[in-house]
Design goal:
Strand order of the largest sheet: 1-2-3-4-5-6-7-8-9-10-11-12
Structural class: mainly beta
Order of helices and strands: HEEEEEHEEEEEEHE
Number of helices: 3
Oligomer: single chain
Radius of gyration: 24 Å
Shape: globular
Distance between the termini: 63 Å
Helix content: 10-25%
Length: 281
């Protein structure tokens, strides 16, 4: 009996010691692994997605404005008389997954998306890897719906994207955005599944101000009047807000709009002034 009690005490002692050692090892690993933060300050660079996503349990309200083209002249006050807006709400479902829903006045379009942070940059891993998928629905007018050949499914498109980002220094971050779209409706001679490669970056010029840029190049056959999107902007942090001012040859504010519908030529003055304001709750 005494031998059994001695063995049982020895076993508990060994398990306790092993558990303490394992916890110590895990704590030491967590302490050694330092996650890189503030790679981008907002969920979007200008129009495109950044590696940042809404934190668990938080809501983020985003308002995007785009005015008319700068070359529309004094009569239209260089585009300020003609604005479009997109409003969206993001929610952090977990630390790694966020959901978003929005509506654009352009084409009366609704969109919904999910962003999943798969890998994080740290002192032991060199970059962020996230997956982003979204769906878009153009809300058709009543007259459009009354057309004999109208099909609601043709108003729907999808996009899938990888977000590969790295913070190179305390001031400079960059991202690569390989993107696939699926179009239920497309013109003859163009691709139903166009591919794009996007590049973006952020350079911090002061504690609260950064300059941002993004560019998407189409890798597939597009419409004849299609132009690749280029946007340049400035982010200003003001407490819980990030205020972004920018210029772009795209008036569209979601992936379907700025990847498929962009037609503006920078050198011809088809440049849209706009701003984003986001607020976390």
């Amino acid at each position: 009996m005494m031998n059994k009690l001695f063995l049982l005490a020895l076993l508990f002692s060994f398990q306790f010691s092993f558990s303490q050692d394992l916890l110590s090892m895990l704590e030491a690993d967590d302490n050694e692994r330092k996650i890189t933060t503030s790679i981008f300050k907002d969920n979007r660079i200008v129009n495109a997605q950044s590696s940042k996503q809404t934190a668990k349990g938080e809501f983020k309200f985003l308002i995007q404005h785009r005015f008319g083209t700068l070359n529309s002249g004094f009569y239209n006050l260089w585009g300020l008389d003609n604005s479009q807006v997109r409003m969206a709400l993001d929610y952090g479902l977990t630390e790694r997954i966020s959901l978003s829903g929005g509506r654009s006045s352009t084409n009366k379009q609704f969109d919904a998306s999910v962003k999943w942070n798969i890998l994080r940059q740290s002192n032991s891993f060199p970059f962020v890897l996230s997956a982003y998928s979204s769906v878009f629905l153009i809300h058709p007018s009543e007259s459009k719906r009354e057309e004999a050949n109208f099909d609601l499914l043709n108003q729907i498109t999808f996009s899938n994207q990888f977000i590969i980002a790295r913070k190179f220094s305390s001031n400079f971050s960059a991202v690569i955005l390989p993107t696939h779209m699926h179009l239920n409706s497309y013109e003859a001679g163009t691709s139903a599944d166009p591919l794009f490669i996007g590049l973006g970056g952020r350079y911090k010029v002061s504690k609260k101000i950064s300059v941002n840029g993004e560019y998407f190049n189409a890798l597939s056959e597009m419409k004849e009047n299609h132009v690749n999107m280029l946007s340049l902007g400035v982010d200003i942090e003001t407490g819980g807000h990030v205020f972004s001012l920018h210029l772009s040859n795209s008036r569209g504010m979601n992936e379907h709009a700025f990847l498929i519908e962009t037609q503006g030529e920078w050198l011809e003055g088809d440049i849209y002034f706009g701003f984003n304001i986001s607020r976390v709750f």
